[in-house]
Amino acid sequence: MPRQIKRGLYSVAILCLLAISMVVAGGLLLPLQESSGQTQTSKKVKRQELQNKQGVTLAQLKTLGQIKLQNPLYTPQPAVRKRPPLKLKLMGTSMDGDQMQAFVINQKGQMVFVKVGDVVDGATIKTIDQSAIVVEIDQEQQTFNMESK
C-alpha cells in the first residue's frame, strides 16, 4: 500500500476519534451547564413534569394496596360452610304396619317420632333398622345406633 494512502487513512481515523470525543464531551457538559443556570422553581416544574410523565406518585402507591379490586382475575369459589356435627340420639324403633318408625331426641332435646323420608335438624331419614337409623345431610350419610343402658 502506498505511503500517501496510509497517511490519509490515519488522518481520517484521528479526525473521527476527535469528532467522537467532542460529541461525548459536549453531551456530558451540556446537562451540567443547564442545571447550573436553573432556578429552584424551574427545578420543581421539571420534577413535577417527570412525575406527570411517570403517571403514579408515591402517595398513590401507598394507597394502592387498600383499593378493592372490582373484577378479580379469577372467580373465587364460594366459601364452603361446614355444618357442626349432627347430635341426634336414637331412643327406640317400632314397626307400624309395613313401615319402621324411630324415636329420636333432636338437637333441642325434644323427642320426635320419625319415619323414612322425614327431616330432623336438616337431616333426612334414609333407613330405619331395629337398632340404628341412617340419615343424610349435605350428601353425607351418618349412622346413629340405639344407646344401650
Quick tags:
three-stranded antiparallel β-sheet; 149 residues; alpha+beta; 2 domains; SH3 type barrels
The portion of residues assigned to helices is: 25-40%
Strand arrangement, largest sheet? Answer: 4-5-6-7
Number of domains: 2
Using the alpha-carbon principal axes, give the shape. Answer: rod-shaped
Question: Low-confidence spans: pLDDT under 50, at least 5 residues?
Answer: none
**H/E element order:** HHHEEEEEEE
Largest sheet: 4 strands, antiparallel
Secondary-structure-based class equals: alpha+beta
Rg from C-alpha positions? 44 Å
* Tally of alpha and pi helices: 3
Number of strands: 7
The CA-CA distance between the termini, in Å, is 121 Å
Percent of residues in beta strands: 25-35%
Global mean pLDDT: 80
Describe the structure concisely.
With 149 residues, the protein is an alpha+beta fold.
What does this structure look like?
- The protein has about 150 residues and is α+β, with helices and mostly antiparallel strands.
- It folds into 2 domains: about 5-65; about 90-145, SH3 type barrels.
- Helices cover about 35% and strands about 25% of the residues.
- The chain has helices at about 5-35, 40-55, 60-65; strands spanning about 90-95, 100-105, 110-115, 120, 125-130, 130-135, 140-145.
- It has a 4-stranded antiparallel β-sheet with strand order 4-5-6-7, with no helix packed on it. A 3-stranded antiparallel β-sheet has the order 1-2-3, with no helix packed on it.
